[in-house]
Design a protein that fits this description.
Blueprint: H1 3-34, H2 37-63, H3 77-105, H4 115-141, H5 144-173, H6 180-207, H7 214-225, E1 232-241, E2 244-253, H8 259-276, E3 280-289, H9 294-305, H10 316-319
Parallel strand pairs: 2-3
Antiparallel strand pairs: 1-2
Helix pairs in contact: 1-2, 1-4, 2-3, 2-5, 2-6, 3-5, 3-6, 4-5, 5-6, 7-8
């Protein structure tokens, strides 16, 4: 992860941490005073957001470290580990809220106070704006951990919306519908669990080195083909590490090239890819002999030396290859 991207990601995590700390106090305090378990549950979920933001912050900080003797490929996987931890926190929060919601449903209690609705409207607005901003920045950075944190804020907005619905039903229906507040908390827990599992899958996929989208592999191959002397790209492999990828290319060139020339060509291919594709952290080049058409080899040799040989006149059918 580049220093600039790491700093942007850390600032986003810090902003989320500060906002969550304020919302926890507001939600839990209002829920206790206003007799709303849905709002208290929402506050508990927000308190877990604080821990998730700390995990995000630490994960980004570790992922930004450079490679060393202990970790030859850097610390980028720390981002995926942190994203998985945040996802598991969501699932744990969902289970805890569901258990407490069921307990509250079975226990008679007071109707929630009407002023809790005003607080929830403000909370929903703040969380939705934070979600949109974080998601946009996470997509810009191509950072899974920032996007996971963004969806954590969206989950918080959804639970607040469910609490708003439950409290509204309870206030309109009277004491007979007092448990609507708790059913809202139960619904919110299901939504939180769904989001947690949805975010956990890509984090685990990155930890297991799942191949990135085909578009990235094609762009790497196209960039390599632009280097004079490259005749074909046989294979492109890649794995994600934080906001970047490590790629391996099998590059085919003229089999008549000297070893030093082939080595230098591979170096230029690597330099071109790393320079022109910021998402590629490093590239490993395997040079292989091209065994295809002799004219293609002549043309590639001409591109490599700056001389483009003239082809003999042939039939159109002989030119097709």
């Amino acid at each position: 992860m580049s220093s600039e991207r790491a700093q942007r990601s850390i600032r986003l995590a810090q902003a989320g941490l500060l906002i969550n700390a304020v919302l926890v106090v507001v939600k839990i305090g209002t829920g206790i005073i206003g007799h709303s378990y849905a709002l208290i549950a929402d506050g508990v979920e927000s308190s877990l957001d604080i821990f998730s933001s700390l995990i995000v912050w630490r994960g980004i900080h570790v992922a930004a470290r450079s490679a060393d003797e202990s970790y030859h490929f850097g610390y980028g996987k720390a981002e995926s580990v942190a994203a998985a931890a945040v996802s598991l926190l969501l699932v744990a929060a969902a289970v805890g809220i569901a258990i407490e919601a069921v307990r509250e449903i079975l226990t008679p209690h007071h109707l929630p106070a009407s002023f809790t609705l005003v607080v929830l409207v403000a909370v929903i607005a703040v969380k939705e704006m934070l979600f949109r901003f974080m998601l946009r920045e996470g997509e810009s950075l191509e950072s899974g951990i920032v996007q996971a944190d963004a969806w954590h804020h969206r989950s918080d907005a959804i639970t607040s919306g469910a609490a708003f619905l439950g409290i509204s039903i309870a206030l309109i229906g009277g004491q007979e519908y007092a448990s609507a507040d708790d059913f809202a908390a139960l619904l919110a827990s299901a939504i939180i669990a769904f989001n947690g599992i949805r975010l956990l899958r890509p984090a685990l996929a990155d930890l297991m080195d799942r191949a990135p989208e085909t578009d990235l592999l094609e762009r790497v191959a196209d960039e390599a083909r632009r280097e004079p002397g490259v005749m074909n790209i046989e294979k492109v492999l890649a794995r994600r590490a934080g906001v970047g990828h490590f790629v391996t290319l099998h590059v085919q060139a003229d089999p008549g090239l000297a070893l030093r020339a082939a080595h230098e060509l591979g170096g230029r291919v690597r330099s071109r890819i790393v320079t022109n594709m910021p998402l590629v952290l490093d590239a490993t080049i395997h040079m292989e002999p091209y065994e295809g058409d002799i004219d293609a080899r002549r043309e590639a040799r001409g591109r490599l030396t700056g001389h483009r040989p003239r082809r003999p006149e042939t039939d159109a059918g002989d030119n097709a290859y």
